[in-house]
Amino acid sequence: MKYLKILSLVVFFGLAATMESNAQELGIRFGQFGGNNVAIDGVFAIGEFSRIHGDVSFGSGVGIDLLWNPIYRPVGASDFNWYLGVGPSLYIDDPFSLGVAGEIGIEYAFEEVPIVIGADWRPTFRIVEDTDFFADVFGLNIRWRFSKVQ
User: Fold this and answer.
1) Distances (CA, A) of 146 to 13, 88, 105, 113, 124
2) CA distance 148 to 44
3) Which of 33, 43, 76, 86 is spaced 20 to 30 Å from 98 by Cα?
4) 39 - beta bridge partners?
């Protein structure tokens, strides 16, 4: 199990390094996350209104969510943005779990400082090792913005 955790870290940081030129935001997510309460939270732009939202949490095990946000839009004329997404959810511990997470969230990017604050809801349907549905997965994101989406 120890080697699986190390392998997960290597894969995550390798992916982050290869996508460095597209890195938009990096920070922390507080909230329930597969048995852990804190995660490293990152956003990688793949277009003007599309992005990858990834999280890696550590604690009793390692949790990884990699969500594609095909919808990322402003809320009317305000400075808030909302987003929808879906992607795989993985938790490496005993018991192991694999599933699909959905995501709906809202965020605010400050103009004066490069900080983004957001809140999201991630209902998760776990398929492997047990089949469960979790609707109580909420989080608060605080990220440092490296660049805006072009």
Assistant:
1) 17, 25, 20, 11, 29
2) 10
3) 43
4) 29, 57
Q: Are 82 and 92 in contact (CB under 8 A)?
A: no
* pTM for the model: 0.77
- Interatomic CA distance for residues 26 and 119, integer angstroms: 15
pLDDT in tens, 11-68: 555 555 444 445 589 999 998 776 688 999 999 988 777 899 999 998 888 999 999 9
Q: Which of 90, 105, 82 has its CA nearest to residue 39?
A: 90
Neighbours of 20 (CB within 10 A): 9
| Alpha-carbon gap, residue 145 to 123, rounded angstroms | 26
Q: Which of 117, 134, 147 is nearest to 63 (CA)?
A: 134
